[in-house]
Amino acid sequence: MLNLKNYFSLLVVLGFTTLGACVSDDEPQAEVEEQELTLTEHLRNLQNTDMDLFLDAIPEFWESLEQIQGITLFEPSPAAFLAFREANNADSVEEAIEIVGKETLEEFLSYHVINEVVRFDNLPEGDHLFRTISGLPIVLRRTTAPPRGFVVDGSGGEVIVNLGGVPIRNGVSYLTSRILVPRPN
Fold first, then answer.
1. Looking at the domain assignment, is residue 129 inside a domain?
2. 93 inside domain
3. pLDDT tens across 2-36, in order?
């Protein structure tokens, strides 16, 4: 009869033998790739209640963005949400969303998305014209002096962009200093 101590020792030896047989120096080991987050997962991970309100107000808009391959999102910073609220004379972002309405909110947010992946680090110095997913022109400006990245929006204002873009499953997301304003029709 096998005692418990010997039984355990045998299991340990068999376990290491099996493990050694599975791991060979001759065969390369598959690297585990870190999965990039979807756009919505990334935005939810910011833990910004104002961004959550934007996500909840127009979920179909965000779902449609996740279906587009190769996008660049200019993500509003917390200060941008404060400016959005103040621009609409609202006590909260939720109230400001009600004031502007979901359709207008979608139009504004569409101006924050380019239908291609743009890497600010790869842009040469100067102005670069792109089109948003709504077809409107938008200028990305790269400079050598800090801050080095800007979006020149429809108001002619320079919106600072954090050049450390976050890769998402279908593109890249950059944090901006304020909500971008499209050129009035």
1. no
2. yes
3. 443 443 343 333 333 333 333 334 444 444 456 78
Measure the CA–CA gap between 173 and 95, rounded to whole angstroms. Answer: 26
- Does residue 141 contact residue 158 with C-beta atoms inside 8 Å? yes
Segments forming the whole domain that contains residue 58:
39-119+162-176
**pLDDT tens digits along 55-101:** 999 999 999 999 999 999 999 888 888 888 898 999 999 999 999 99
Q: What are residue 172's DSSP bridge partners?
A: 72, 167
Instruction: Write the CATH number for 110.
Output: 2.30.180.10
Other C-beta atoms within 10 Å of 146: how many?
Answer: 8
Sign of the dihedral defined by the CA atoms of residues 46, 76, 64, 137, in that order? negative
Buried b (16+ CB within 10 A) or exposed e, 147-167: ebbbbbbbeeebbbbbbebbe
Burial classification of residue 168, based on how many CB atoms lie within 10 Å of its CB (0-12 exposed, 13-18 middle, 19 or more buried): buried
Q: Which residues are CB-contacts of 32 (< 8 A; sequence separation ≥ 6)?
A: none
Distances (CA, A) of 33 to 30, 106, 114, 172: 9, 34, 27, 17
